[in-house]
Amino acid sequence: MPLRSIALPLALMLSVAPALAQVASPTPAPAVPTEPRETIEGTLSQDRTVIAVPAFATPAVTTVAGLRTDNLGRQIADVIAADLERSGLYAPLGPGSVRAISMAEVRAPRFADWQARNAENVVHGFVQTNSTGGFVVGCYLYDTQLGSELVRQGFEIQPGDWRRAAHKCADAIYSRLSGESPFFDSRVAYIAESGPKGNRIKRLAIMDSDGGNHRFITNGQALALSPRFSPDYRKIVYVSYLNDRVRVFIYDVNGGTQKLVTESRNATFAPRWSPDGRQILFSMAVGGNTDIYRISTEGGTPVRLTNAPGIDVGGSFSPDGKKIVFESDRSGSQQIYTMNVDGSDQRRISFGGGRYATPEWSPRGDLIAFTKMGGGEFRIGVMTPGGSGERLLTNSWQDEAPTWSPNGRVIQFFRTTSGREGKSTIWQVDLTGVNLRRLPTPQDGSDPSWGPILP
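RE: above sequence
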């Protein structure tokens, strides 16, 4: 359910805290211009900006659906601080390391206090109940040196959406300070794995971008593989293997129902959405040859796009829907190719040595992420759509299957350990290759798919 954004004029603040009546409502500062890409990449994870994020205040401690407004104010601040820290750009001082604030301070920060903590910015906010059984959450960002307001956002939320309000606040802060598009309020579909290595149970699961609000979608009776969120976030396409039946399903996230797109006794894998959500790209092995096909989301007869001898595996559409990036071993080893959406103009773009797999186009359109294999290792890398500027971002034994954040700044992938256990975990890394971290999942995890920003 979309969050309901609300304006936070002085009148609203008067209704919850008369002491704020004397506080002037400053004019928001002009938007920060987007810095050149090279500058941002060169400074990520270095000299991080200190941001204080004290617990959000509340005008009165009340409880809705078991959530107390004072406790919720601290939890929201914790999530905001964690989001900002995950970006690699900021060094937040969360509610556990700074003093609490009063309601009067929400709109009248004591800037000298935060300057003494070397905080260049401070986040203030409040939580209160409303008349509809939910909460109002207000969020503000201030520049402590200039004493100016940079961000002001408010939301009316139902109790189950409090984490989304925190992510939305963090997104607004991140975008205002970095000039980049947001990415925290998004979700990840992935394959949850359990059981012995030779007989794994693989279930479809979804979670928030930070691992919160986790839930399983399938029960594990059938093998689930290769999930991908639809562009409108309402559906997930995935492959289901049960005995000798291979099916591509579209699962409706809100309705909890699914429909069959195509079924075959041939190996079928790697389904991907077109940007308009009307077509599905997938690969299928027929008679010892694997090719890439396109089919309507309503089903019907698939259209074959490749016919070269060997194995062609679909990667993804370009953001404008005009091209497709894919992998093929037609040259003797796995390499990355691009083609037009109708299958014409197929051309190789990877020439860096070694083998390449699982290419995925950035939502910005400027880069293609891939798995590079060589020397017994799998590593995550990026290159331009023309094949230039190749850079490897990870250096582990087996990292594979990259998927992009909604803003094209961060890549998630899964890492498998060596040995008998072969444990798989989900990780993410930014485009510097420096800010590397693992996402928490209740079971082993593989094949992540990062969806767009939630509406």
